[in-house]
Every structure is written in structure tokens, then in C-alpha cells.
Design brief:
The protein is an all-alpha fold. The chain has one domain. Helix content is about 65%, strand content about 0%. Helix 1 packs across helix 3 and helix 4 runs antiparallel to helix 5. The protein is globular and about 45 Å long.
Length: about 160
């Protein structure tokens, strides 16, 4: 049970740190991961809100928290990076189907960034698959529930 809570917090850190840092340091070192490149369809690969600053700081936050929990820094780096790669994957898919950056896509916005690192955690630790799925779904639902509140508090730029 404690490991499940720790994994949930790692998901929140991987995806929350980039959002908070973007609000604290707007337009500072926010180089887009896609470098402004476009795909064959003429749309951005990911969009301007996916930055190296967010990717690096989200990964570092997970690494430090995992180290503190004695899960190991390598687990934290891989977990954070997979979560943020899942976020990039969802952005890539959203651009391909014609959704604008920061447009809402329920479940697509949350599941890749939760499922990829949770699958790695399942391979890393002796966790039942149902628990891995439950943590991913709980993260997605909590993201949907708390995003409007974070928007009203001025932390998120979008209410979703």
C-alpha cells in the first residue's frame, strides 16, 4: 500500500513540477522539446508547452524523491522520464488528430503519462497488475478533478 502511494506521488511530481516551474519562471529557459519543428502534416510535433526545462526538472524531481524513498535514483529517473515521454506521446497524438496545444482530450491527456511509468514499476517491483492499473486510473481521475482548481489558483494555464 505504501509503495502505491509513493508511485502515485511520483506521477504527481513528474507531471506537476513542469507546470509549477512554468508558472514560477515564465519564458525563462523554456526551449520547446520539438524545437518548433513540424510533422509531415504541417502541425507541430508536440507544441510550445512541452519544454526541455519541464522534462528535465520533472525527471530530476522524481529522481530525488525516489532516492529519498530508497527506491533508487535510477528508478526515479526512468519513472519520471517515462511519464514525461507519455505526455509527449499524448501531445503528438493530439497534434495529429488536429487538436491545438493545451486542447482538452479526456483520458488521452492523462493515461499515457501514467501508464508508461506504471508499467515499468510493475516490471521493477512485485506489484499486481490490477494495482498498477488502479494507480494509473486514480492519477488520471485526480488530474481531471484537480486541474480546474489549480487553474483557479493561477497554477495551471488551462482548466483541464
Amino acid at each position: 500500500m505504501l509503495l502505491s502511494l509513493e508511485l502515485f506521488v511520483l506521477l504527481v511530481l513528474a507531471n506537476g513540477v513542469p507546470v509549477v516551474v512554468a508558472r514560477l519562471l515564465p519564458n525563462s529557459t523554456d526551449w520547446p522539446v520539438d524545437a518548433g519543428l513540424t510533422w509531415a502534416d504541417g502541425r507541430p510535433l508536440f507544441g510550445p508547452s512541452k519544454t526541455w526545462r519541464g522534462f528535465i526538472l520533472g525527471t530530476v524531481a522524481c529522481s530525488l524523491f525516489a532516492l529519498w524513498l530508497e527506491l533508487g535514483w535510477l528508478f526515479g529517473v526512468l519513472f519520471g522520464a517515462l511519464s514525461l515521454l507519455g505526455d509527449l506521446l499524448s501531445s503528438f497524438i493530439k497534434r495529429r488528430i488536429g487538436l491545438a496545444p493545451s486542447a482538452r482530450a479526456v483520458w488521452l491527456d492523462q493515461m499515457p503519462e501514467a501508464a508508461l511509468p506504471m508499467l515499468m514499476a510493475w516490471l521493477w517491483f512485485p506489484l499486481p497488475l490490477w494495482e498498477v492499473a488502479a494507480i494509473a486510473v486514480l492519477f488520471a481521475l485526480s488530474n481531471m478533478l484537480f486541474s480546474p482548481l489549480l487553474f483557479r489558483l493561477g497554477i495551471r494555464k488551462q482548466p483541464h
